[in-house]
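User: Thanks for the earlier help. One more: phosphoenolpyruvate--protein phosphotransferase. Can you show the sequence and predicted structure together?

Assistant: Of course, both are below.
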Amino acid sequence: MLSILRSLVQEVNSARDLNEALEIIVSRVQKAMNTEVCSVYLLDPASNRYILMATEGLYKDSVGKVSLAYSEGLVGLVGSREEPINLEDAPSHPRYRYFPETGEERFRSFLGVPIIHHRRVLGVLVVQQRESSRCFDEGEEAFLVTVSAQLAGVIAHSEATGAISGLSLTGEETQDVSFNGVPGAPGVAIGTGVVVYPAADLDLVPEKPTEEIEQELALFQSAVQAVREDIERVANRLASQLRPEEQALFDVYLRMLSDEALPGEVVNKIREGIWAQGALKQVVQQYIRHFEMMDDHYLQERVVDIRDLGRRLLSHLQEGEQKHLEYPEHTILVSDEITPAMLGEVPKGQLVGLVSVKGSSNSHVAILARAMGVPTVMGLVDIPVNQLDGRELIVDGFEGQIFASPSADLRAFYQAICDEENELIRGLEALRDKPCETTDGHRVALLVNTGLMTDVLRSLSHGAEGIGLYRTEVPFMIKDRFPSEQEQREYYREQLEAFAPNPVTMRTLDIGGDKALTYFPIQEENPFLGWRGIRVTLDHPEIFLVQVRAMLKASEGLNNLQIMLPMISNISEVEESLHLIYRVYHEVREEGYDIHMPKVGVMVEVPAAVYQIRELAERVDFLSVGSNDLTQYLLAVDRNNPRVAQLYHSYHPAVLQALVRIAQDAHSVGKPVGICGELAGDPGGALLLMAMGYDSLSMNAASLPKVKSVIRSIDREWAIQLLEDVLLLDSPHVIKSCVDLAIRNAGFGRYLRPVKSSPVALAEQAVS
């Protein structure tokens, strides 16, 4: 069964569209289970009805015509119960629903399993048999459940592809197709998708028609000739080193490149109006599909050769194509994995948004995007990237969503958000030089999280009182080697000078987890619980010592440096780090540098540290909570994984209780405590943190004016009462709603992200 399943998944994965994928499923499952009927019913999101989309055994004319209401019949029962239903005599079941146009009255045995993807029921997979005496056994039921689970992602991907193309299952036009990911940089962008794909990856080639048929033919013929010459050149160079049977492999490649083989079929596709890269993709995938289905092991192995040949041809086709990529006025860059180099290709002023399938909110590109103020969504699952080229897109960097084919109402809704954000920022500029204090005189320092010089001007113009978190790994990320002491010193000096005399808190190198250096790879099964942060630098004191030395020398004459240690989980790590820092301090002083010993603090981001606050505070000058990682570790949720993103919530009662305890314990021993993370930049979160007693809040520059405006407009007692009220609640969503309601009632609803409405509600808003 395992080999059948593997073969089935491979074949379905290479299907050209959803209909072909479903036809493959019903045909192969019927044969594998030796049953008379196999059918797939898919749930149409537009009508909320199950539609018969493919069948082997029922009348073909009924495909696309037979539909059932959400809870109608046995199919609806399987979907609503979200579990298999196995019946020997289906017609006798009270929920049985008969459709004469299918001819299913002949079949009595019934086994249906739901097709579920990320908690969403996509449809139902059904097998039926004529004899009432046959009951599908446990093994057959388990096989069908396995098939369903394996194919759910494929069906979701194909369904999304069709929806993006503007068609529902019934062939009706669709709009407002949404995909969920991880927020990379806040804001909203409306523009045109431009897909940039890694070189020579056939799977990511966009589907595009062409009217320049002769031009595409010429490009393809040139690529074929170039690959032929490459292969002949390599074959000639290696001729003396290879045996005849090994040399024959090059002949296999050359035969596949003859006009009557693969190139001939690609030419035919191009003549049908498909651009060369898309035609090559279709033909190569068709070849792969056919060879993988063959029983002969030698022929199955030829799939590797076909893939390699396809990549070689595609590489030549792409050489000139990327250089001539056209960027519209409002470009939303889309890629499987966006790189900093891709950002540099877009003409200045035309990049409005980013969509990256891979990556996280902490990736280098996300940090760059936040510095540039470009709304970004990352970590999307099951998104057909190649369908987004040239389409109008909306990027919601607040919620981590993108929309394709937006309706006029949805577009107007998001345009209003863009306009409101711009107007709000302009209106808050007057607050830049005013202190952040409550109406009853309680002062809170507002700091900025940064890692790039491009952040500096925006941070200062928004009223930042210093840097609460300088990510020193950024200079390491933009190099292809460890930066030298002098290079680091120059980076650090720029930041220290820009904010002097205000404090600049530099976190020592924090790599590992989802922050990797290409020249220092860390391969681990569970990187977030592995070798990261202070664990890496204490194991490599040569890295730590050079970095601290560069920081200290950069601070000469300014003396506004603070050093912060990441991922501390026990006291010994602090003591070992302090020993190294004091050693470097004395060495640098002996070299003649006139420097002061900087304040040293620790980041509280591991649950173990929450219960050692007093012990940690006795050894350092300050504490700073990394609320993003602390929330992640407390809830055991990878915040960059869209599959579990709904479980990550900064307002979770456990998170709030931990934050209260940290502030109380730090102050009990007389040490200041700050926080850097997304919660500090949220107006509601900032109010709760201020009420808890946090001395400083560090956030992205864009959040500073809103947070300052809210804090300056309330008294601390009001915030303390709000905190006491929400600490009695047990649901993060209820807590967030209560905080938002309190802010709205206080007159600050304009600072909250508007909640997306249904199309009906949007229409009502437009009318009113």
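User: Great, one quick takeaway?

Assistant: The longest strand covers residues 120-129.
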